[in-house]
Specification:
The two termini are 21 Å apart. The chain is of the alpha/beta class.
């Protein structure tokens, strides 16, 4: 199954040469799970011609806000709505989570409570999953029809499911601890309160549950493909 990675942000210049860029992280995260990948740098205006150019889509994180007036944001929202209407599966991560919600009628804004950074515990319907986070923006109002499937005391809409067509999460399963440490050193100081950064560093001695989330994302894509294939056979 071919997944188009819609890149909406870049890793910091100081980290990119040694650790890679956001599409690299997702290809590593989802490796060995029956998926192949194409890349589209939508933040530079590189869009697919059609929602059917790939079997599914994954929208990355970004340092930009979904509500900011960048020229590539309105066409990305339009692409999301077209993919949903065409039953082409979409997964969104952090900014991807937020832009899907905004495109579908939800609200995204800077959270009055501030930042969430580093290893964070999420409640997926009674199942705890620890994943790295890096955000101040949140989906403060979920779109009509979206099901909340994960939450924290700090982030009410931490993961959303739009029937079997779209799945999005606020944290970053693709961020490993060394990259979070790099973000703290090269992007966080002076932007995020030091108390939050220092608390995040103290939790970096344990590994996140990224493989479990990778399994969930791959299953979402592959189950959708199997269902679509069965429907075609019956047609």
């Amino acid at each position: 199954m071919q997944i188009g990675i819609l890149q909406t942000g870049e890793s910091p210049d100081a980290l990119r040469d040694t650790m890679g860029d956001y599409p690299d992280f997702f290809e590593t995260l989802l490796a060995g799970r029956g998926l192949t990948f194409r890349r589209f740098a939508v933040l530079r205006g590189e869009f697919p011609k059609d929602v059917h150019d790939c079997d599914g889509w994954l929208i990355t994180g970004s340092r930009h806000g979904a509500y900011e007036p960048h020229p590539w944001i309105p066409p990305l929202e339009d692409f999301i709505r077209k993919a949903y209407a065409a039953h082409v599966p979409v997964v969104g991560i952090c900014f991807g989570h937020q832009i899907i919600a905004q495109a579908m009628g939800g609200k995204v804004e800077k959270f009055a409570g501030g930042w969430t950074v580093g290893p964070t515990d999420y409640d997926f319907g009674g199942e705890k999953m620890t994943l790295n986070a890096w955000h101040q923006d949140q989906v403060t109002t979920a779109p009509p029809g979206a099901e909340v499937v994960a939450t924290t005391s700090f982030c009410e809409n931490a993961a959303l499911l739009y029937d079997d067509r779209m799945f999005s999460v606020q944290p970053h399963p693709e961020f490993q601890n060394d990259f979070v440490e790099g973000l703290i050193n090269f992007r966080g100081r002076g932007l995020v309160p030091d108390t939050l950064l220092d608390a995040a560093i103290r939790r970096l001695d344990s590994q996140p549950d990224s493989p479990r989330m990778a399994d969930r994302i791959a299953t979402f894509f592959l189950t959708h493909q199997a269902k679509t294939g069965a429907e075609k056979l019956r047609a």
